[in-house]
Amino acid sequence: MDVSDPRSWSLGRLLSTAARQVEQEWNEWLATHGLTHAGLLALHALSDGPMTQRQLAAASRVEEQTMSRVVERLQRMGHVTRDRDERDRRRVLVRRTPLGDAVVEAIEGSTFSDELVGRRLVDPEMFRAELVRLLTQPDGGRPDVS
Predict the structure, then answer these.
(1) Which of 3, 13, 38, 85 is least enclosed by beta carbons within 10 angstroms?
(2) How far is residue 28's CA from residue 67's CA, in Å, rounded to a whole number?
(3) Are 94 and 71 in contact (CB under 8 A)?
(4) CA–CA separation, 140 vs 132, rounded Å?
(5) Helices 64-77 & 53-60, crossing angle to 10 degrees?
C-alpha cells in the first residue's frame, strides 16, 4: 500500500486534508478583506448581538485563548469593539462595528466560497447536502444498515 496515495487514506484523513487545503485558499481570500477564518466565525457569531469573549469562543468552537487573539485582531482592524457591560461592569462585551457588519455583508454576498469548493466537485449540491446532514444530525445521519 502506498501511504502517499490518497486513495488508500481513511475517510477522516481525506476530509481533514481536503478541509485544510480549502481553508488555506479560503484564508488567503479572506485576508484580502482583513479577516481570517476564525475572525469570520466570530463576526458571524456576533450577528445576534454582543457577547463575552467566553461566549464568543464557545459559539465559534475555539479555545478562549485563541478567541482572545482573534478579538484583538478584529479590534485592530475596526471590525469589533470591546466595552464594559453596563449591567455587570466586570464583564467585557464584544460587538460588531458598522465596518464589521459591512465586511460580513460583502463576504456573504460573494460566491467565492461556493466556487472554491464547487469547482473541485462532480456534484456540489450533493456534497453540500451530505455535509449539512453530517453536521446537523446527531449521528451524522448515518443510514440504519442493520
Answers:
(1) 3
(2) 20
(3) yes
(4) 9
(5) 110
* Inter-residue contact 6 to 14 (CB < 8 Å): yes
Let me know: does 83 contact 93? Beta carbons within 8 Å.
Answer: yes
Concatenating the DSSP letter of every residue in 86-135 gives: SS-TT-EEEEE-HHHHHHHHHHHT--HHHHHHHTT-S-HHHHHHHHHHHH
* Element of type H or E holding 81: strand 80-84
User: Could you tell me which of 110, 144, 135 has the C-alpha nearest to residue 32?
Assistant: 110
Please write down the HEC assignment for all residues of 4-71.
Answer: CCHHHCCHHHHHHHHHHHHHHHHHHHHHCCCCCHHHHHHHHHHHHCCEEHHHHHHHHCCCHHHHHHHH
Interval 100-131: pLDDT, tens: 999 999 999 999 989 999 998 999 999 999 98
Q: How far apart are the first and last CA of the chain?
A: 31
Tens digits of residue pLDDT in 26-67: 999 999 988 988 899 999 999 989 999 999 999 988 898 999
Q: Which domains does the chain have, with CATH numbers?
A: 35-108 (1.10.10.10)
